[in-house]
Amino acid sequence: MTAKIKLNAASGGGSFSLQAPSSSANNRVMTLPDTADGTILTSTNPRSGNIIQVVQTVKKDSFSSTSSSFVDITGMSVTITPSSTSSKILVRFHLGCFNNGNNTSRAFVSILRGSTKIIDGNADTGHECTAAICTRSSDDNHIQIPVSGEFLDSPSTTSATTYKLQGSCGNDGGTMTLNRPNAPDAQSGNAASTITVMEVAA
Questions:
Q1: Rounded Cα–Cα distance for residues 127 and 168 (Å)
Q2: Is 114 left (phi over 0), alpha (psi -120 to 50) or beta?
Q3: Whole-prediction pTM
Q4: What are the tens digits of pLDDT across the range 57-98?
Q5: In the chain, count of helices (H) and strands (E)?
Q6: Partners of 165 in the beta sheet?
Q7: Distance separating alpha carbons of residues 16 and 13, to the nearest angstrom
Q8: Contact in structure between 173 and 145 (CB atoms under 8 Å)
Q9: 28 falls in which pLDDT band (50, 70, 90)?
Q10: CA 133, 129, 98: angle at the middle one, nearest 5?
Q11: Which residues on adjacent β-strands are paired with residue 194?
């Protein structure tokens, strides 16, 4: 027989039950603090700053593009469904290596929620982006540089929300490449990239 203690609200409201583990080998102790009152936290009643859920996408293959405008980086998107409209979403990305194979050219990356960029630099001369790479190396075909970034977003929704990365070569030309150098050889690093989203309780 499983022991259970049931408490009913004095005003005729709901009830609360404490039930012992079903196995005699699983003894548990609940100790209440003697210095202050407290509130039991649950998945639907978390403390501010608690991580409610985490979703991640991993990309192990390569991607390349010669586009001068921002285009989706294939495989670098992730979808999360917030449990509350007040939740924030911490977006993190790590590019194992990212470069432009033209030795005088740049490569840019931006974070988007759906089709909206959510963290770019101010509009000014040049290209607004989340991060930029420019090596100015005479051997850019073999350059491999990791890039990471993060942003705390407030989507204000409980609908499925997709975050993704876009990349661009700007007007410099060349070829931007992810997870591989522009001209792989036997010594190249075959890198992996990730995009991770975490729901944070408000």
A1: 9
A2: left
A3: 0.81
A4: 999 999 999 999 999 999 999 999 999 999 999 999 999 999
A5: 0, 14
A6: 111
A7: 10
A8: no
A9: confident
A10: 30
A11: 58, 94
Q: Mean pLDDT for the chain?
A: 89
Phi, psi of 124, rounded to the nearest 5 degrees: -160, -175
Report how far residue 8's alpha carbon sits from residue 151's, in angstroms, rounded to the nearest whole number: 45
Q: What is the 3-class SS of 72-99, one letter each residue?
A: EEEEEEEEECCCCCCCEEEEEEEECCEE
Core vs surface per residue 127-166: b (16+ CB within 10 A) or e: bebbbbbbbeeeebbebbeebebeeebebeeeeebebbbb
Q: What is the pLDDT of residues 95-117, one digit of tens each?
A: 999 998 887 789 999 999 999 99
Which tokens belong to 118? 């959510």
Enter the tokens of residue 47: 């403390």
Contacts of 67 (CB under 8 A, 6+ apart): 167, 168, 169
Burial class from Cβ neighbours inside 10 Å (0-12, 13-18, 19+) for residue 68 reads middle
Identity at 157, one-letter amino acid code: T
